[in-house]
Each structure stands twice: as structure tokens, then as C-alpha cells.
Amino acid sequence: MDWLMHTGSIDVTLTLVLLLLAAGLLAGWIDAVVGGGGLIQLPALLMVPGITPVQALATNKLGSIAGTTASALTYLSRVRPDKSATIPASVTALLGAILGARVATLLPTSVFEPVILTALIAVAVFTLLKPQLGLAAQLRFGEHSKRHHAISWLIGLLIGFYDGLLGPGTGSFLVIAFVSIIGFDFLHASAMAKIVNWATNLGALLYFVPNGHVIWALGAAVAAGNVIGGFIGARTAIRLGSGFVRVVFLIVVTALILTLGFDFLA
Where are its TM segments located (predicted)? Predict the structure, then answer.
């Protein structure tokens, strides 16, 4: 059991485990409601002495897949997601995440920060200017139309690639894509985002695990927190509805903008 207490140059202490458990719980709650839990969890892992950025990203995926499993199952017990959009998006999201994880080991994330920051600002402004957006479903295409399916494939591929590459805000990007592009309400979009996000986490892990990038002891701590937070967050979102999810969405996107903006300007 020595590997649970020491992994390479990283000493896994009880204090560290408890801190990561707390970070995982908060991240799991945020992810379950609207996505963006990586805003909490990934920086917490990056602060672990001796961990590399790729190890932190890979370990973050282990915690995230545990949380998205808990929240997705909770949503599925109460909310029926649109399979015609969720399944295509999940398939391409998994493939995109594998590709993104590969690119993450080759290129510095700073290359992509300006693009992501600009996209987040645009998302926040768009959501603020449309107060009725996502409060009720208004599908723009026929549920079983070719365009409905094609856009779902594209959303999954692009956001899956981003999740494998960086990660923070993936759930938020999925939610706003399902709401603003296809026309789902925030509650159903959040439920669908959990399923697709599960696929992106799996895709990234399919690359990271065989290449030895996951720190399992740390991943177990954030995974445990994610499961608890994911279960509580999903039940909260279901109980309070789309209006609540929209408010949390704006808060999380604003926090992402401030965090990425600070990193970019520093």
C-alpha cells in the first residue's frame, strides 16, 4: 500500500488528501449544476508540490469522471435527456477528448488561452443580453432532423477536444452550446452535458492512463469528493430548475473569465 502514501516525488499526506477531497466536493457540486468544476479542482491539483501540469490534468479527469457518473445517474432518474442530441455528441466528444489529450502533451496550454478567454466573454455577454435564454426549451431544428444530429456531432467533437486539452469550463461550454445553438432549456442542457462530459473524461483517460500520467492516490481523493458533490449538485439543480442553473452558470463563467484573464495577463 506504499503507493497510496507516496507517488514518485509526490508525498501524499492526510492533510493533502483532505484538501483535495474538499476541492473535489465543491468542484463536483459546480459541475453537476452547470459545469466548470475544473475551475476549482485543476488549480488545487496544480498546487501539489512535485506534480507536473500533465499529471494534474490527467488526475483531474479521474476525479471528474467519478463526479459526472454520480450526477448523470441522478439526472437520469428525474430528467429525460434528448437522446438524438446526447448520443451523437457523446461519441464525437470521446474521440475529440482523446485527440485533445494527445495535443496537451505536445503544446503549451498558453497557446489556447486567448481564444478560450474570448469565447467565455462572448458566452457571458450573450447570456446576459438574453434573460429568457434557456428558461424554456425552444428547439431550433426538428428533433430528428439531419441538422439537429450534425450540430450535435460537431458540438461533441469541438468541446471534447477542448476537454482533453485543458478542461475547465467544459460543462459550461456544453450547456451554452445545447441552450443557444440547439435550443434546450438550462436544466435539460445541464443533464445532457453531464453525459457528454462523462464521455470526454473517459476519452482523455483512455490516453492518459496507459501513458502513466494519472496520480492514483490524489485521483482517489478528488474522485470521492466529486461523487458526493455531484450527487448533491444534481439534486439541487433538479429541485430549483432552469432559472437557478442560469444564475450559477453566469457566476461560474464570470469566475472562469477572471481566472483565465489573470493567468493570461500575469
Answer: 56-75, 87-105, 111-129, 150-167, 214-238, 244-265
